[in-house]
Design a protein that fits this description.
The chain is of the alpha+beta class and 496 residues long. The chain has helices at 2-9, 14-41, 44-55, 58-64, 68-74, 77-89, 100-114, 116-132, 134-137, 140-156, 158-170, 174-179, 188-191, 193-196, 204-207, 215-225, 234-251, 259-265, 267-276, 283-298, 305-331, 457-478, 480-495; strands at residues 375-377, 380-388, 391-398, 404-411, 416-420, 426-427, 429-431, 436-441, 446-453. The strands form 2 sheets. The chain has a 5-stranded antiparallel sheet with strand order 2-3-9-5-6, with no helix packed on it. The protein starts with a helix and ends with a helix.
Length: 496
């Protein structure tokens, strides 16, 4: 969200920032999926068809449904699929094999930076795949690539992971306070009611909006009718194995999948289902798998080039028609981004809008009780206030004989501090009424106070590590010969 936030800061309207961001996300999805699919097949036509199927599938309906996190996260799915496919099919002795970790690192880092739930889903599927392919995972070269991918992704994301873990483990927020409750579940269906009600049947899995789309039906039918003439080559074998894996990801999205029965046998999977919240979210994984399956199928040599061009064109046209149909369905009698006024107030000077469900707000915060005013308790005089975004400077005098308290209209999270502008002495800062920043003012105090957020040193160190990791990866990608020369020099010195 940094990019659209930057657009707002420099003067773009909310609508312009949103549309610009979605435009860039869609362009990135097309190019990234094309790149990933071409790495798998080295076939331009197959990769192009797969990218159209993927970018023009359920992502379109998610975009117009304002499922922004899911749309953004799906941009990086193809990199992960390509990385694992190459990891288990490429020659481990080849030079290219030692660069596969870059695909996995880029994919998982991108998802982690955009949508945590998508990262969780892809992570679980990746673990299951590694268990199924355990024999290949334990190969030295493969295991090293997985370690490199995981290590680089963690280091790249450290600037985000450290604050995230600190807040999730140390702050009392709505989201972690609810997850932390260890309740004995007796009625698993009731506990997962919101999840299972989103399971699709076989009809609306492909025909309804916000699902996989009927363009993929054509791909599946083409594959089914050509099975007798497909032959027995290595690519055909890979395609059939991938088809079975894809079928599993599709079944998981349907009401055929025994969610409740699995939940009864695994506490971990129960928590996974509850965290995912809705079964339809798993269709994002099925969408990328089906698109990749189409790519493998079209590149397997079943069709000659002339027929492949015609088939690719037909698939693209069907996808375009499907998108237009979905758009008309979603936009009927709906007005997007109309009349939004973020400064709107009610007559009682309370914010009249809401943003999301407030999962990351402090536990006891009531959004209906927000105020824009600085409030205080005690015999104090405040004669000057200046606000700069989430920072305040204030002149205050406590004339009372007891300690006073000032409440600022910003939510308290660990890191907010108040200091005397003259002596730089730190004043006690805590969470006050309705989760607001509260500053204790000693009896007899008189002076100017600065209140603002100060990042801990650990955060800065994590940011430095992530930056260094990014630079090293960039150098590795652009200058592989340089890395080899440096290694040779180091080895030569050690030998001497």
């Amino acid at each position: 969200m940094y990019f659209p936030a930057f657009l707002r800061v420099v003067g773009f309207s909310l609508e312009e920032a949103y549309k610009t961001y979605l435009g860039i996300v869609n362009i990135a999805t097309v190019f990234i999926s094309f790149y990933a699919f071409k790495k798998i097949t080295r076939d331009d036509v197959a990769a192009m068809t797969g990218s159209v199927l993927y970018a023009g599938g359920m992502r379109i309906t998610l975009m117009y449904s304002v499922v922004l996190g899911g749309v953004s996260g799906m941009t990086f799915y193809p990199l992960i699929v390509a990385g694992f496919y190459l990891l288990f099919t490429e020659d481990i002795a080849s030079g290219e094999y030692k660069r596969i970790w870059i695909l996995l690192t880029a994919g998982f880092t991108g998802i982690l930076m955009t949508h945590m739930i998508s990262c969780l889903m892809m992570g679980l599927y990746s673990v299951m795949l590694c268990i199924v392919m355990l024999k290949k995972v334990l190969r030295r070269n493969t295991f090293v690539e997985l370690l490199k991918a995981a290590g680089a992704a963690v280091l790249l994301s450290l600037w985000y992971l450290i604050p995230f873990m600190q807040y999730m483990l140390g702050e009392k927020l709505r989201i972690n306070s609810n997850i932390a409750k260890d309740v004995q579940i007796e009625d698993y269906y009731a506990a997962l009611e919101d999840f299972v009600q989103e399971g699709r049947n076989l009809y609306n899995l492909f025909m309804d909006h916000n699902t996989l789309g009927f363009a993929l039906i054509v791909v599946i039918l083409l594959y089914a009718v050509t099975i007798p003439v497909q032959g027995k080559g290595k690519q055909i074998k890979y395609c059939r194995n991938f088809a079975l894996l894809t079928l599993f990801t599709v079944v998981v999205c349907t009401d055929l999948f025994p969610v409740v029965a699995i939940a009864r046998r695994s506490v971990i999977l129960t928590k996974f289902f509850q965290t995912i919240q809705y079964q339809f979210r798993l269709m994002s994984v099925a969408a990328v798998m089906l698109a990749c399956f189409a790519v493998l199928f079209f590149a397997s040599g079943v069709f000659d080039r002339k027929n492949l061009y015609w088939i690719a064109g037909m698939i693209c046209c069907i996808t375009l028609y499907q998108d237009m149909q979905y758009y008309e369905t979603l936009s009927f009698d709906k007005i997007y981004l109309d009349g939004i006024a973020l400064e709107a107030r009610t007559d009682k000077n309370i914010y009249s809008y809401t943003v999301g469900n407030g999962e990351y707000l402090p536990m006891d915060t009531q959004t209906t009780a927000f105020t824009s005013e600085v409030e205080y308790e005690g015999d104090m005089v405040i004669d000057w206030i200046e606000r700069d975004s989430l920072s305040f400077e204030i002149n205050v005098e406590n004339k009372g004989g007891e300690e006073g308290e000032i409440l600022f209209p910003i939510l308290y999270y660990g890191g907010y501090k108040a200091k005397d502008c003259g002596s730089r002495a730190q004043l006690e800062t805590m969470s006050g009424d309705n989760g607001r920043v509260a500053v204790k003012i000693p009896s007899g105090y008189r002076g100017k106070i600065h209140v603002g957020f100060h990042e801990p040193l650990l955060w800065r160190i994590a940011e430095g590590i992530s930056l260094i990791t990014l630079v090293c990866i960039a150098v590795y990608i652009q200058k592989p010969d340089m890395i080899r020369r440096i290694r040779k020099k180091i080895c030569a010195k050690k030998h001497i």
